[in-house]
Design goal:
Blueprint (H helix, E strand, L loop, with lengths): L3 E5 L10 H10 L4 E4 L16 H11 L4 E7 L6 H14 L4 E5 L18 H20 L2 E4 L6 E5 L12 E4 L3 H10 L2 E4 L11 H22 L7 E5 L13 H14 L3 E5 L11 H18 L1
Parallel strand pairs: 1-2, 1-10, 2-3, 3-4, 4-7, 7-8, 8-9, 9-10
Antiparallel strand pairs: 5-6
Helix pairs in contact: 2-3, 3-4, 4-5, 5-6, 7-8
């Protein structure tokens, strides 16, 4: 399976002051997809501009024609499956069937308490994620859904006409633990990882590769248990959180080396952050565009 190159555009620019132009440029550069973070605020960007993911994607759908669009990732922290399903069906329609839903369990960031709740324990997050994903799957594939859950319920929730993409828009499930990987195997058309967070500060690229290989092996086992072929699932690496950090974006050669290693591991899509000055995602924009336009051909030749 060939390696696709995508980008993630953080929603930090006003639409008419650079936002629209960035999404259009992502399409011009030939990226397979452009995603955005679905948070209420995020880390060092908390005290600056930050716009909503789904309105941003709706605007991007109207400003582009071919680029796939999606979240990287949505979580139950401030979403409910019933209202999210309605918005996703609308977004899939506006985009002409170009939406991928990246979905994960969420964490203990600002989203975890923004609605006034106490942060969930890791176990409760996993429990909620499983119930959230299964109900969302039903809501996006059935015209009417009634279900009483421990955390999420629906009563005659109607979603007509459903998604443009059939039977529904694809899920890219972010997971590394056993329960999450089983969820990905059951509901995901793609799997997402950022690597092993324990290796980010002091790990080596070799340790990171070994950790990712282990995650891929466990994904394969989860798919086998679910009775599906792991080869049919897209494997997505959201870059910037491995020990290499932003190093692969320093030159075309550095990126091709990084991407080639991960292609050999079995990844089918790499997602790079659109450069943002004075942040963890700062990068030379000319080099970034060179990578976007030239790396895919080099990787295809190498593969």
């Amino acid at each position: 399976m060939s390696l696709r190159l995508s980008t993630v555009i953080l929603p930090v620019d006003r639409w008419h002051e650079g936002g629209r132009a960035t999404w259009q440029r992502a399409e011009e550069l030939g990226f397979h997809a452009a995603y955005t973070y679905d948070h209420l605020s995020w880390r060092t960007f908390r005290d600056g501009p930050w716009f909503g993911a789904l309105p941003t994607l709706t605007a991007a759908a109207g400003a582009t024609e071919r680029l796939r669009l999606g979240t990287m990732v949505t979580s139950p922290n401030f979403r409910h499956p019933v209202t999210l399903a309605k918005e996703l069906i609308s977004l899939d329609d506006v985009s002409g069937g170009r939406i991928t839903l990246g979905i994960g369990a969420g964490g203990n960031g600002f989203d975890a308490t923004a609605l006034g709740q106490q942060p969930w324990t890791p176990r409760e997050r996993a429990d909620r994620f499983a119930e959230f994903t299964a109900l969302l799957d039903r809501l996006l594939t059935e015209d009417a859904v009634s279900q009483q859950g421990t955390f999420y319920s629906a009563e005659e929730a109607r979603n007509i006409p459903g998604c443009v993409q059939r039977p529904r828009l694809p899920f890219a499930v972010a997971a590394t633990g056993p329960r999450g990987l089983r969820l990905a195997a059951r509901h995901g058309q793609a799997w997402v990882t950022t690597g092993d967070p324990k290796l980010y500060e002091e790990g080596t690229p070799e340790q990171s590769d070994a950790a990712l290989r282990g995650q891929l092996d466990r994904l394969g086992a989860a798919c086998a248990e679910a009775g599906r072929d792991v080869d049919g699932m897209e494997k997505i690496l959201l870059t910037g959180f491995t020990p290499e950090r932003s190093g692969p974006l320093e030159s075309l050669d550095a990126f091709v080396d990084f991407a080639g290693r991960h292609q050999e591991l079995g990844f089918t899509e790499l997602v790079v952050h659109w450069p943002i000055a004075d942040s963890d995602f700062a990068a030379d924009h000319a080099v970034f565009e060179k990578i976007a336009t030239e790396a895919p051909a080099q990787l295809a030749t190498a593969g």
